[in-house]
């Protein structure tokens, strides 16, 4: 185990890296709003964030990655594992999503809306986001399978995870162009419908 000063230094470094990554993304999204995604260069983003281009590429290998990146997946996984054992997989997932998303500020929700809109509108981002969906699906499948006592490739597990991802995407699309739209409430409502067996 690391001595306390080393653990503290490690924590400080990780927090500093997280702040730098968030600042780069925040400035990139502002520039994309002001002058368009394709017209914005990595050099402009780096200048706005007051970092070098080499620093930008240490955090984001490509300009596309600055739109695609977020740290919600590990947060959802941690929140899911912390849910009481008495909750079923769907209940635990809904609670975990609510726990992770509820603290999002209006600015953070606006960032999620903008990133989602860019992923739909820009062909390279659309293709990259489609490729990227496998990671969250594998993660959620492993979590659900562990709680349900099944295998991650169990058809019921796959169907449930697919339904969750689809419902969340539908909820986000419903509020993507609505500045007053509440992403957290929309996603929670969608998860609640799944939890209730999707009554129609």
Q: How many structural domains does the protein architecture include?
A: 2
What is the CATH C level class of the largest domain, in words?
Mainly Alpha
Number of helices: 11
Strand count: 0
Q: Would you list the SSEs in sequence order as H and E? A: HHHHHHHHHHH
Low-confidence stretches: 1-9
What is the second-level CATH architecture of the largest domain? Answer: Orthogonal Bundle
Share in helix: over 70%
- Per CATH, the superfamily of the largest domain is Tetracycline Repressor, domain 2
Observed structural traits:
200 residues; mainly alpha; Arc Repressor Mutant, subunit A; Tetracycline Repressor, domain 2; 2 domains; 11 helices
Set out the fold topology:
Layout: H1 4-35, H2 42-49, H3 53-59, H4 63-68, H5 72-81, H6 89-101, H7 106-121, H8 123-132, H9 134-148, H10 155-175, H11 183-195
Short description:
The protein is an all-alpha fold. The protein has helices spanning 4-35, 42-49, 53-59, 63-68, 72-81, 89-101, 106-121, 123-132, 134-148, 155-175, 183-195.
